[in-house]
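This section describes the prediction task in plain terms. A model, or a person checking by hand, is given the sequence of a single protein chain and must write out its three-dimensional structure as a string of tokens. No templates, partner chains or ligands are provided. The sample shown here is typical of the held-out split.
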Amino acid sequence: MDNELNYKSNPLNGVGLKQLITEIVEQYGYDLLHAYLNLNCFKSNPSIPSSVNFLKKTEWAREKVEAFYLYQYKSLPSPTYKQQQVPPRDRIIPDDQIPGEPAELTFEDAKLLREENAKKASSYGQEPPKANKPIKPSNTKAKPSKSSKSDPWAKYRHK
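The expected answer:
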């Protein structure tokens, strides 16, 4: 029962996708949302109905937008690692975390964030495996592509 009460404190509880998109678009605009989230629904012919339609069909993008809503628009503190593994709508928000004013976002900050994420991604791809054993692909019939050395996710893209 206690978890239900905490779940009800999640700002996404009772907020439809159309309302969520409308609120963040009114606050930040399509260009800034695209700069932070890098989703084409905010760049190519953006509109509320087309964004809602895309996000209804694309779970990973919807979760990205919902997380943005919680931690940028509602200014909640960053979630714990354990809570990051749960979709934003299912996260339990502690009672002492009260939504605040929307964060002040700029295009310069978005650019810095993208550069920082690109550095992390490139350094991740260059790190040697921690174990001494070679990593075997999960599907032994599929051969990893030649680009797998520069792209750690390449062997999973064949699906």
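For orientation: The helical segments are 2-8, 17-37, 48-57, 59-73, 81-84, 107-126.
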